[in-house]
Amino acid sequence: MPSSAEPRAHPLPGSARDGTATLCVSDQTRQATSLTVTWARPVRSVIASPSSLAWPSAGRALQLTFGDLTGLAGSTQQVTVRLG
User: Fold this and answer.
1) Which of 2, 5, 7, 79 has its CA 20 to 30 A from that of 16?
2) 31 Cβ partners below 8 Å, 6+ apart?
3) Domain count for the chain
């Protein structure tokens, strides 16, 4: 078994009837010094995000770049977007 594991994130998108979606990301390994998640779905804008989100990019696909997640104790990071 390797001594270090690749950090893994599990984005869990959920859509609401109001045209929004919430993506939840968690780094249970607590080793991700940066993390980028791409969701191949049109998104108009990011309407709520945690301070750990360093760079959101909406458009034909959503790209979320998180900063250092190691100090967040594996807590879930939620991002709410307006679908487009």
Assistant:
1) 7
2) 4, 5, 7, 70
3) 1
